[in-house]
Amino acid sequence: TLSTSDNVEDREHEKARLEEAYEKCDRNLDELIVQHYTELMTAICTYQSITERITTSRNKIKQGSEGSLVPSKESGPFQGLMDKVQLCVRRQIRNKARSRLTQTQLSPATGQKQKQRQKDLEGLP
Predict the structure, then answer these.
(1) What predicted TM-score, i.e. pTM, was given to this entire model?
(2) What torsion, rounded to 10 degrees, do the Cα atoms 63, 64, 66, 69 define?
(3) Which is more confidently placed, 47 or 115?
């Protein structure tokens, strides 16, 4: 290497060799960029897009933690899934209430209690 060379001639020879290798590497890199320009641009654009999405998500999380913890009603990637889960939970609640009502109708109960339970059942979401 340049720092361990004893005399000036060896240093100059090593310096010339390193400069030549650098220029060869630079030319090779230029050729590869020209050959793979489309793929390179696609990769760069994809990287930028992903970086922007991550930054946006981090900012939303930061804003959410600074403000209230109540989730916003804007539609996001999981909004459809959350709607389906809520619908499923409502159905399960309704079915359990109906099954309880049916069981109570089989047992000896007054007509007034049955009517009240039917009204309660109709009010379920």
Answers:
(1) 0.38
(2) 170
(3) 47
**What is the C-alpha separation between 71 and 82, in angstroms, rounded?**
12
Distance CA 79, CA 105 (A): 39
- Grouping H, G, I as helix, E, B as strand and the rest as coil, residue 29 is helix
Decide: 90 and 82 in contact? Cβ < 8 Å: no
Strands (E), 18-122: none
**How many whole angstroms separate alpha carbon 88 and alpha carbon 82?**
10
Q: What is the pLDDT of residues 73-123, one digit of tens each?
A: 555 555 565 566 666 667 777 777 776 666 655 555 555 666 666 666 565
Distances in whole angstroms, Cα of residue 116 to Cα of each of 26, 102, 107, 122, 123: 85, 13, 15, 10, 11
Residue in the block written with tokens 């009010």: 123
Strands (DSSP E) contained in the chain are: none
Helix (H) or strand (E) holding 19: helix 8-35
